[in-house]
């Protein structure tokens, strides 16, 4: 089990807040009717409310600082490693650049290669192999969700007095009401349940004829907010509303999971202004979407300052996985893309911005993984991590804030036993230790090992986006004629994964294969049930939403394909809980 963290950081008590206590009865007028809420309008409404209360003889509430920091976690969707100004992008991101420059840039930061896995690991602090979500993502028609016996980050924060709110994309399953965000620790939820959808209409088709509406407020379809507002702006308005109406004397946890810059590639017209010269239409649209996202984050930051949260806040920014080049994203100079275990799929843009940081304006090159936010934030919130919660994350606050060494020395990127097997993989290729046909990836110290089929493996330079349509002529292609199923890289010396060292250091390969084997012994069965026809939105008022009912299960046992399999998986999971391995592996040259 990873360490649950050191004692609460009492120095946080010294943080001062802006004297701007909010009135509990304040109401933001028609946020979702008039598009982006202007600060003049919002400020005027607040001042009028304050004046009215003063005339009634009411005194404004005092703003006494809480020792617990306000936590804002912003998760972008499919943002490529290069797609931020400070990584050399041609796309302008002045807000992200400024916040990162004033905070701590995470330059050895890892997530998972797809949406559901990153979100599940953030909210539980556990690797995919310990939740059963190690394969692909949760599909809209699957009777599947983040297992209910997993304690979530918002649940732990609520235990110590936090108000918890989620705005944006959930993508952790919804087939049962118990799977919904409001049942997993959030006081409120406004956003989408699926992995993608139209940015304006909020409709999603999973397949021909299987289409539905996907915008929720708490547990109900948010038809009242269906005003054709672009989702990035709409979500930001909701965040402004939450901050304006909450009392900053009480700690708040805001999880903002933007839909951008995931496909479909859509953006309001004004954001194309600076990118008319980008010939590649996908890259141009992507740039406009990212520009809108950057502006949205600026407005979130302004709201934190205006309403008295900022001085005692911690803002964390992260992408959920690498970019998708065919959809405009760039991971250059890293190899691979979203959906792969090459660095381009899992090494992410990330930073922490906070007045509470000790080493502001610094660069963190220590190993950090998305599972680390769970114990880190609970410790900062002065919460307790139960001893029976077997985490894969570490408390890395001192690493980020003070520049200390990271307690993390390894990352299990994943083991996916049901992904398409590599044709040439075998136990023999894995020295009898591991079947190299299985897709897996692990990092230990400087070394990274991949087996099986790691996914799309090209390097995609900026020149690939120079033409009007997708162009792979500039890509550096990799020949698979050798039939390789094992790769070893020294990521510190070779972050671009150009020099395979598996033939030169077979002993290190064996040690990492043994490490994979040890992790695999703690894995729970994969949860990936077949689609359920009852999920069709036509049977649910045209809305994507919970469809599974316990009474139907009792009446028709075993009728739903995949349901019995899921029940067996759940039983096995309860019998064999995953355990983290935190022993250090000492490797030659590592």
TrEMBL record:
Top-rank taxon, per record: Eukaryota
One Pfam family, short name: Sulfatase
Keyword Transmembrane: yes
Disordered: annotated span: 527-590
Official protein name in the record: Arylsulfatase family member J
Sulfatase N-terminal domain ranges (all copies): 69-381
Keyword Glycoprotein: yes
UniProt GO MF annotations: metal ion binding; sulfuric ester hydrolase activity
The family this protein is said to belong to: Belongs to the sulfatase family.
Feature: compositional bias, Basic and acidic residues: 548-566
Cofactor(s) needed for function: Ca(2+)
Species annotation: Chelydra serpentina
Membrane-spanning segments: 12-37
InterPro entries, per database record: Alkaline_phosphatase_core_sf, ARSB, Sulfatase_CS, Sulfatase_N
Keywords: Calcium, Glycoprotein, Hydrolase, Membrane, Metal-binding, Transmembrane, Transmembrane helix
């Amino acid at each position: 089990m990873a360490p649950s963290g050191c004692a609460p950081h009492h120095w946080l008590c010294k943080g001062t807040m802006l004297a701007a206590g909010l009135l509990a009865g304040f109401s933001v007028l028609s946020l979702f009717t008039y598009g982006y809420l202007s600060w003049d309008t919002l400020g005027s409404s607040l001042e009028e409310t304050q004046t009215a209360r003063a005339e009634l003889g009411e005194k404004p509430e005092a703003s006494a600082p809480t020792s617990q920091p306000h936590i804002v976690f912003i998760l972008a969707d499919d943002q490529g490693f290069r797609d931020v100004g400070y990584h050399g992008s041609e796309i302008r991101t002045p807000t992200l650049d400024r916040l990162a420059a004033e905070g701590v840039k995470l330059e050895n930061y890892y997530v998972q290669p797809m949406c559901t896995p990153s979100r599940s690991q953030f909210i539980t602090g556990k690797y995919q192999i310990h939740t059963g979500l190690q394969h692909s993502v949760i599909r809209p028609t699957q009777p599947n969700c983040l297992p209910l016996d997993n304690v979530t980050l918002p649940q732990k924060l609520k235990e110590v007095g936090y108000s918890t709110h989620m705005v944006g994309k959930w993508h952790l399953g919804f087939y049962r009401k118990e799977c919904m965000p409001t049942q997993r620790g959030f006081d409120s939820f406004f956003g989408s349940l699926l992995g993608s959808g139209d940015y304006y209409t909020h409709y999603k088709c999973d397949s021909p004829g299987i289409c539905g509406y996907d915008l929720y407020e708490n547990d109900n379809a948010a038809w009242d907010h269906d005003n054709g507002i672009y989702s990035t702006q709409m979500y930001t308005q909701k965040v402004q509303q939450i901050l304006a109406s909450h009392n900053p004397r009480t700690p708040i946890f805001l999880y903002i999971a933007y839909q951008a810059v995931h496909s479909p590639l859509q953006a309001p017209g004004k954001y194309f202004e600076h990118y008319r010269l980008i010939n590649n239409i996908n890259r141009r649209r992507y740039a406009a979407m990212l520009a809108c996202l950057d502006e949205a984050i600026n407005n979130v930051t302004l709201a934190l300052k205006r309403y008295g949260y900022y001085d005692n806040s911690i803002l964390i920014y992260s992408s959920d996985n690498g970019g998708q080049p065919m959809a405009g994203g760039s991971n250059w100079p890293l190899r691979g893309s979203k959906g792969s275990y090459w660095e381009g799929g899992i090494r992410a843009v990330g930073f922490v911005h906070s007045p509470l940081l000790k080493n502001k304006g610094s660069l963190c090159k220590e190993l950090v993984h998305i599972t680390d936010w769970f114990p880190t934030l609970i410790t900062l919130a002065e919460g307790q991590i139960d001893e029976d919660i077997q985490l894969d994350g570490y408390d890395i606050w001192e690493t980020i804030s003070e520049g200390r060494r990271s307690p993390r020395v390894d990352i299990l990127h994943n083991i996916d036993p049901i992904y398409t097997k590599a044709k040439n993989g075998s136990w023999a290729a894995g020295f009898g230790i591991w079947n190299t046909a299985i897709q897996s990836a692990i990092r230990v110290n400087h070394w990274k090992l991949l087996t099986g089929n790691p996914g799309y493996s090209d390097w995609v330079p900026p020149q690939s986006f120079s033409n009007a349509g997708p162009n792979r002529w500039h890509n550096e292609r990799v020949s698979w004629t050798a039939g390789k199923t094992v790769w070893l890289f020294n990521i510190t010396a070779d972050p671009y994964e150009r020099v395979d060292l598996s033939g030169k250091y077979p002993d290190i390969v064996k040690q990492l294969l043994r490490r994979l084997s040890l992790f695999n012994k703690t894995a729970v069965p994969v949860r990936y049930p077949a689609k359920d026809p009852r999920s069709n939105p036509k049977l649910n008022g045209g809305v994507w939403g919970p469809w599974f009912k316990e009474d139907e299960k009792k009446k028709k046992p075993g009728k739903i394909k995949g349901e019995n399999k899921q029940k067996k998986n759940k039983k096995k999971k309860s019998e064999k809980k995953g355990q983290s391995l935190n022993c250090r592996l000492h490797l030659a040259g590592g």
